[in-house]
Amino acid sequence: MKMLGNFLRVAVRILVRDRLYTLLNVAGLAIGIAAASMLGLYVWHETHYDGFFSKAGQIYRVDKTEFVPGRMPITYDSTAKPLGPMLKQDFPEVEAMVRVHSESVVVSRDGNAFRERMQVVDGDFFRLFDLPFIAGDPGTALAAPGTVVLPESLARKYFNGVDILGRTLTLTNGISLTVSGVIRDLPTNTHLRRDAMLTNIGTRLGENFDGWFTRMDTTWNTNFIRTYILVKPGTDPAALTARFPAFLAARDPNYLSTGTNKPAKALVLTGLTHIHTDPTGVSANLLGVLHGLLAVAAVVLGIAIVNFVNLSTARSSLRVREVAVRKALGAPRGMLIGQFIVESVLLTLVAAVLGYVLLEMLMPTFVSALGIRFDRGYLYSPWLLVAELVGVLAVGGLAGLYPALVLSRPTASVLLKGGTVSSGGSAVRTLLVVAQFSAAILLAISTIVIFQQTRYVSSQQLGFNAEGVLLVRELHQPEARAHIESFRQALLRIPGVAQAGASFHAPADGSDSTDNYHVPGTVDDGTIVFRSEFIGHDYLQAMGVRLLAGRLFDRAATADALRDPAAAPGEGINNVRPTDPLGRTVVLSWRAAQRLGFHTAEEAVGRQVIYDVDYPLTIIGVVDDLQFNSARTELQPTAFLLDERGLDVMAVRLTPAAGAATLAAIDQLWKDTFPTIPANREFLDDHIRDAYTGEMRQGTLLAGFTGLAILIACLGLFGLAAFTAQRRTKEIGLRKVLGAGVTDIVRLLVWQFSKPVMVANLIAWPLAWLGLSRWLQGYAYRIALNPLVFAVPGLAALVIAWVTVAGHAARVAAAKPVDALRYE
Amino acid sequence: MLKLVDLTKVYRTEEVETTALNQVNIHIKQGEFVAIMGPSGCGKSSLLNIVGMLDNPSSGQYWFGDEDVAGYGERKLADIRKKNIGFIFQSFNLIDELTVFENVELALLYHDIPARERKERVKEALAKVNIAHRESHLPQQLSGGQQQRVAIARAVVSRPRMLLADEPTGNLDSANGEEVMNMLTELNGEGTTIVMVTHSMPHAQYARRIINLFDGQVVAENLRAA
């Protein structure tokens, strides 16, 4: 114990004496620890979704994979409404089943309408998802229709409290629901909606919804509801999945097995804890991003640790004399080793504490920059503390052990004579510097390429003019449907509005409706699949598409008149299905026209194409290809069809002169026309950009951490340069005596540190090339890798290294040579 | 060649002020061989450092040729030094990582001399001090006398007008010491001005003039009959 006190005293003195070194060492490591902890916590958070439900291991979501000829299979998390009850009925190992449908409802408070999410769920919901109740009984809260369970925040929003069992929540359409429970707000790491109310699946939510929702009870080809099952303990999900095809064949009247040329489907199970990171649905690519972030965290921390080890070992070689004296006075080797390790661990501990403080301070910024939700409680998780402690001992021990072993080995007399010790250490240090800069340059190149690609995809040829288009949504609301055309007419009267047209979906909405098409006289083998966009007459004009041949839809053209959906079939149309469009004309994208075998756009105009099975359409125009999805997907051949039964979004093209007054007038018009529907508008270009926020954030995040990595690497380089300058003081003095000028000395030192950075470039370039080429493969439209992008970060790293080292070198070089010689 | 007028050097630390040189006046002519003697701490090394332009005086004048360099900055001093002055140290001061050849070549690297001529001149200098056969050795592999011969080769390879030697024989046995002194004499014979600090009276006798310093002041000058 006495010895430990002595070690600590000496350690503290040395750390205080070599302030610059201590500062560099601690700062670099602290930043590295903070950065890696942030990323690590985030990744941990993202990979531990839904694990807190007590039966998480037995809960699966039933997903559906669609096999459509001519494209990759796609898995959706939406299923048909009858699926859940049938599963429960047919499979004894399914203990309970819950379906979740999210419907938007409007609640009024103090005269203002608020759109809220209502999760329509089966009564067993809380049996699967055991969320803590503040009021009410989980067993019965959702047992009957007409009740509602609110999360705490919504309870406070509408009732100013949580003691509200039995109170009534009234929707603007007149429906009343009785509050049967209040639950705590959901934690951040669940895939369930946090801000939603819950009601029984039998609850009536309004005429329009009720009719449709009841119809769905027997409909197998509309997939819209999420189905979760709770299986008996010990059930093998793979064995269960293997029995699904037979089940579907028996239950689903439309079922077609895979392996035919027709669209087919299969059911798959996704474990509850894997839903968030599963590539199905909205969180696509998340797992890849998380792995990437983990790699970045490792790189940043690695660079910091390398610094620490490098600086520690470098500095220790300046302590030969001290070690020699201690040895001469009889210190055993073990004690010397202990001394170095105590010093090193102490320094690491200081860095870890500092890093933790940084983490505390920066985590909120980090979380909001990422746009994620994150409970602060994770910062205090014991696992984090244990991990940090283990890290401290490992890094501190490692950094201390190496010099301890090297310095304590030779005998005192060798050391006192100033014999050569740890000369091999400098080679290791150079190697580590090379590794650091390779990693930093790799990160920098990746960041630039990700930025470039993101900008490219968000600004690439869309096929329409996305600028100056306002999207006004919610027209599918029952109270709006009948007034779409009059609303459109009113819009056109507002100064600053040039054109307006409605559609079912806007670009980048993620809509994905496809149908089979074929030319009359050919065999429909199901291989020609186009994206079907159902639109109103004026939509294409409002979007500003480029017409290649023919014309766009025209209200004045009799050919474009809509048939009456209620009228009896006739005029050569025998079996009109409810899903067939209301128009008899079609506008095709150029790719679609080509796919049908037309060689020019003009050739297609006036010809016929069959929609689905036997609904004939006349091609009136061909437009340039349009990008309706994110650039990850290839341009899809598209057919534009007239319909009005699902128009939801109005594309309003504004004149360049339109300003705030125009927007205000549109908002006012909405409020006057549809007072019960909350306004929902956005600019199309913003909306498209939103589709790339994931990539944008990845880019920003990467840029930030690349900056950090380079900063930490430079801190290390700065420290090493200081050390080298000090160690080479005598040599530099001599060189000056022999006539070396300041520039000669600066050049000497700068060159010494340029070499590893240049070698690092040679290592980073091919790695970056390989990695980024693979990453870009994920995009249908991608930039070419520009050699300049590789050269610039490399050069920048070199320049930064120069600046870092040159300052030191200049100071040493400018000193009077006599100081250098006297040092000896 | 050089003239020191009322040259004073004061070292200051936070607490003490030490006068290393006090109003020193010395005149050294081209081609002279001067020995500076005196007890430890008398200011010999300070004087040599200033004469060698490794350090600036606190006050006074230092005329080198027709320039007063006393107030010159490091950049200017380095330039004059490089062209005119060679150094020999008691502890040789060879760079451990460089070979004998590279150590000597170092003195030419900072002059604009093409590689081929550099090589020739290094070989020539090494031959002159009889160490040519060891040119690819590292300093640690040589004896003290050999190391000092390398240091002399390095000092003369750039053909300085003046050679400053700080106890060049201090770390050598008498036989090696004699050899070094003979070399210096020979160089002086060829016209190089030599200023040498030494503790050894016998070695000081090689010089033509002996300056005695005590407490930072010149206390005696003795001319030896040629």
From TrEMBL, chain A:
Keywords: Cell membrane, Membrane, Transmembrane, Transmembrane helix
Domain of life where this protein originates: Bacteria
GO cellular component terms given for this protein: plasma membrane
Sequence intervals crossing the membrane: 20-44, 286-309, 336-359, 379-407, 428-451, 701-725, 788-810
Membrane topology listed for this record: Multi-pass membrane protein
Localisation per UniProt entry: Cell membrane
GO MF terms held by the record: transmembrane transporter activity
InterPro entries: ABC3_permease_C, MacB_PCD, Macrolide_Exporter_MacB
Domain MacB-like periplasmic core: 22-244
Domain (ABC3 transporter permease C-terminal): residue spans on this chain: 295-409, 705-811
Name assigned to this protein: Putative ABC transport system permease protein
Organism this protein belongs to: Nitrospirillum amazonense
Automatic annotation (TrEMBL), chain B:
Coiled-coil region list: none
ABC transporter domain location: 2-226
Annotated PROSITE patterns: ABC_TRANSPORTER_1 (PS00211), ABC_TRANSPORTER_2 (PS50893)
Alphabetical list of SMART domains matching this protein: AAA
SUPFAM superfamilies associated with the record: P-loop containing nucleoside triphosphate hydrolases
MF annotations from Gene Ontology: ATP binding; ATP hydrolysis activity; transmembrane transporter activity
Any one cellular-component term (Gene Ontology): plasma membrane
CDD domains the record matches: ABC_MJ0796_LolCDE_FtsE
UniProt KW Translocase keyword: no
Family: Belongs to the ABC transporter superfamily. Macrolide exporter (TC 3.A.1.122) family.
PANTHER family: ABC TRANSPORTER ATP-BINDING PROTEIN YTRE, IMPORT ATP-BINDING PROTEIN
Name of the protein this chain belongs to: Putative ABC transport system ATP-binding protein
Protein source organism: Nitrospirillum amazonense
